Amino acid sequence: MITRLTLLMVFMALVAGGCAKKQDKASVQREEKKSAPQAGKFKIGLVFDVGGRGDKSFNDAAFAGVQRAQKELGTGYEYIEPGEGADREAALRQLASQPDIALIVGAGFIFTDDINAVAKEFPEKKFVCIDYTVDTTKPLPPNLSAIVFKEEEGSFLVGAIAALVSKTGTIGFVGGMESPLIKRFEKGYQTGAKYVRPDINILVGYAGLSGEGFKNPAKGKELALGQYSKNADVIYHASGITGLGVFEAARTTKKFVIGVDMNQENEAPGLVLTSMVKLVENAVLQAAKDVDAKTFKGGQVVRLGLANKGVDYVYNDNNKSLIPDDVHKKVEELRAKLVSGELSPL
């Protein structure tokens, strides 16, 4: 006969086993966020922007830089992916407080104020903020490097491509969070398109007014389908994970789309006209190399554009059949004029 004591013991064993499984899983998840450095090397701490890993765009580009540093320099890494309503300043501080982390990267303009504060608190550590919001009235901490990309230059070129390739005379733009940064993407795109085709019609939509605008694929699809239905045959997105919905709309309608930040040609094979790439990966890797060589220079803004290969557009074997030779030639002429200063992207 089974006693109450026996049943209690069986129950406790099952609970303990379940807890053990949960602990094991949690441990694995933590390990996925860390990588040990080689002997004598340091670790890089990375805090992701809205959308986190898997956005196939800005965040993944930053993480690719960390991974290249691991491969090329032997550095380790640890990253934090903030959840809903997370305290980014606390995440930065958590990484900076660890003795083996020498470089802390904040991926996104949202980090600007928080990374300023934490950099001052940890003067012995090195900090990098990607897409830093520059305020000329406030000096940068001497241990903080502010990385700023000239998105408007690359956007100018893909805008020219969109306008020259369009058969309907209407193109579109889908932004994530309506903000000064994403407005630069939009403005460069519009300026480039109108420079080569003054009568081009450009439809514009944004997914939101907060960071949520970068992680809403359903809204991205809705906006894109709306623009395609209004005769747009090319849409450029600058919207993080929201852009995955734009690609879905492109696949549904069989119309062109332009990717952003990374080469996104695999998201809609045969329909990605090009991608405006921001070489965030290279910027993160270079910062790690500077820390490793003890040549890191903080207290300054680093501006990366066409001239120093900070931004570009994709033209390769997979998409050159989509971009006629005369269009490619014209866009390369525009590149030269932007680099020389003869043309303004805004």
Detailed description of the structure:
- The structure is a single chain.
- By secondary structure, the protein is α/β, with parallel strands linked by helices.
- It folds into two domains: 41-149 and 280-304, Rossmann fold, CATH 3.40.50.2300; 151-277 and 315-340, Rossmann fold, CATH 3.40.50.2300.
- 43% of the residues lie in helices and 21% in strands.
- The chain contains ten helices and 13 strands.
- The protein has helices at 4-31, 58-73, 88-96, 112-121, 151-165, 180-196, 217-229, 243-253, 280-292, 325-340, and strands at residues 34-35, 43-47, 76-80, 101-107, 126-130, 144-149, 170-177, 201-208, 234-238, 256-261, 272-278, 300-304, 311-313.
- The strands form two sheets. It has a seven-stranded mixed sheet, sandwiched between helices.
- α2 (58-73) runs parallel beside α9, α3 packs parallel to α4 (112-121) and α5 runs antiparallel to α10.
- It is globular.
- The N and C termini lie far apart (84 Å).
